[in-house]
C-alpha cells in the first residue's frame, strides 16, 4: 500500500514525519508524493497561527478529494487544539501523543473501518521516544531532543497542545546522533518545542548534553534550532565558544523590540538581554506606532544578521485574545513589511563582512552550474561550478547577489568529509 505524508509547521513536525515515514517503510509500505493518489494520507498539522489552522484544514480536505477510499490521518497540533474538529472522510484523528503507534492505528482502521480519535487529556505525559537513522532528501538531519513548553507566553497556543516539558534520555540522543553521523550526515540540528529547557525533567541540563554531543567522532557541525535568551547560560556559552563543532550561529526569539510589549507577552526578559539576531512579532495588541518605531530602532541597534517577522495572529484561548487595542490587520501587514525591509538592509551589511574571505559551505543542491549551501553561521552561498552534494566545500566569497553570497572554489578541491 502507498502512503503520502504532508508536513506543516516546525522542525519538530518535520522530524516526527521522518520518523513515521520510517515506520511505514519498515512495515513494507511505499512512500509516495502527497500529490499522488495514495492508499493512506497523513497530514502532520500545525496550530501556531490562524493561517496554520487554515492550511491544515485545506490539506486534510485535499487528501480526501484525491482518494475518497483512502485512510486519511490528521495528527498534531491543529487537531490537538481542536478536538471537536470533524471532516467527512477523516478516518484517524491523532493529537500529539501516540504518533509512534500510527501504523498500528492505520492497520486497525483497515480491519474495522471505524473512525479512530486518540488524544491525551493531561500534561503528565512521558517523552515519546523516536529515533531516526536517515533524513531523506536533506543534507542536515534534525534530532528531536525535547517536547512541550511551560512558558505560557500570552499569544501562544503551543503549551496547551504540546504539554509539559519532557526530554529524551542523554544516551538515547547520543546514540541517534552517532547513527546519523555513521550514515553520512555531517550536520545535525538539535530541535524541540523548548529546546534550551532540555533535561528539566531528568536532572540534567542542556549544557550537559552539549558537552557529550561535541565528543562524537565524525560530527562536523552541530546546530541549535532555537534557544531562548534566558537559557544561554554561562556554561552553554562557554561550550559554544570552545567547541569547533557547534556553529557560530544562534536563533534566539526576541518577539518584540519594546519592553512594554514584552511584558504583555509574558516573556521572561527585557531588551537589556539582547545582543544577537532574532525573531520579532509585529502588531501585538497594544503595540502603538511609537512602540513599533522603538522596535525598528532596537533591531538596528542590535544589528541582527537576519530577522524573521510574523504579524501577530490571535489565538483563541490565549491571554492575548483578551488584551485591548488589537492592531488593525492592514496596519500589521504594513509594519511587517517595514521590518522586513530593515532585515534585508541588515542582512546585506552582514554579508559584506565576509567579502574576500574563505568560508566552508555544506553543499545542499546543484542547479544550472552552481552549487548552493550554507556556512556554519548560516550564510546562504552560491558557488560557481558543480560540487558534490552533502560535502563540505572551501570557497572564497567574491560578491553579494542577494539573497546569496557568490563564491568560487579556487583550487576546486572539496574539503575532506
Give a verbal description of the structure.
The protein is an alpha/beta fold. The protein has four domains: 117 residues, Rossmann fold; 128 residues, Transcription Regulator spoIIAA; 101 residues, Transcription Regulator spoIIAA; 51 residues, Nucleic acid-binding proteins (OB fold (Dihydrolipoamide Acetyltransferase, E2P), Beta Barrel), CATH 2.40.50. It is 31% helix and 21% strand. The protein is built from eleven helices and 18 strands. Strands 2-1-3-4-5-6 form a six-stranded parallel beta sheet, sandwiched between helices. Helix 10 runs parallel beside helix 11. The longest helix is centred in the C-terminal third of the chain and has 24 residues. The protein is globular. The C terminus is likely disordered.
Strand order of the largest sheet: 2-1-3-4-5-6
DSSP E strands, number: 18
Q: Count the helices. How many?
A: 11
**N-to-C SSE series?**
EHEEHEHEHEEEHEHEHEHHEHEHEEEEE
CATH fold descriptor of the largest domain: Transcription Regulator spoIIAA
Uncertain stretches: 412-417
In the residues, how many domains can be counted?
Answer: 4
Sketch the major β-sheet. 6 strands, parallel
- Fraction of residues in H or I helices: 25-40%
Write down the overall geometry: globular
- What integer is the average pLDDT? 92
Gross CATH architecture of the largest domain: 2-Layer Sandwich
- For the record, give the distance between the C-alpha atoms at the N and C termini, rounded to a whole number: 38 Å
Strand content: 15-25%
User: Radius of gyration in whole Å, from Cα?
Assistant: 22 Å
CATH top level class name of the largest domain: Alpha Beta
Structural class: alpha/beta
